[in-house]
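Dear V.,

Thank you for sending over the compound details. I've combined the ligand you provided, zinc ion, with the protein sequence from our construct and run the structure prediction for the complex. I'm sharing the raw inputs here so there's no ambiguity about protonation or stereochemistry in the SMILES, which I know was a concern on your side last time.
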Amino acid sequence: MAILWVRHSAGRQENPSWSALFLNDACYGHPSKRNESFEICTQRRTDEACAWSIKRFEIHGSEKWILFVSQSCAAKIRVNAIRTFLGIKALQHRDEIFLQGFGRLFFSTDQKIVPQRYQGEGEKLRCPRCQGFIQPNQYIVRCPACSSIHHQDAENQLTCWTYADVCGACHDQPTHLDGEFSWTPENL
Ligand SMILES: [Zn+2]
Ligand SMILES: [Zn+2]
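Below is the predicted structure of the protein with zinc ion bound, written out as structure tokens.
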């Protein structure tokens, strides 16, 4: 899962707010029929060509998101102020995508973190915080940045994920569990 932060009613309101478009597999930018802008949707329309798309790939068990830009609109799109080379760009957390006629978007891999029951068998997976094994059915958190699995089982007093401010494996991902995104483009 990734997020595209989209600013609605771009240019018309004084302080338009950002909203999160959740991407499961892909999203598509279709040229607008009304103006020089784009319409963004998570379904590909079969009757018309899309100008650009963002697609999810799984490479060695980790998620990658790739932006594809059609030749006809290559000049209208920038990622972090740079044109995409050969119309392809692997997106990173917090990348800014500028669409001429539409405005700015932000790509994010941040997620709201919710503990889930561990579905795996006893495959000898160790928690990076306490080094103990992860047992089937224990509540766990999978780090959205590095995919490592931590205990977060309050009943068994194994709150390894929230034990420190950042992930015990990548030391980068914040561990808050308040249902808020840790990053939004709001303050840029
Ligand atoms: Zn643990
Ligand atoms: Zn991590």
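A first observation: The chain has a mean pLDDT of 88.

Warm regards,
I. M.
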